[in-house]
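Page 47, continued from p. 46.
Same chain as before, 47 aa.
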Amino acid sequence: MNSYEWILYAGIAVWSGLGLYLALLAHKQAGLSRRIKQLARLMEDER
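Result:
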């Protein structure tokens, strides 16, 4: 395997890892948004 192939595979690995990390952050952010909305509704009901 020459150096070009190593660089190509390393780039694919980096971009794949970055994509998975961003997907994980988006998933966690969606969960937090749902919890904040739920908390806001509960606080509205207590008034």
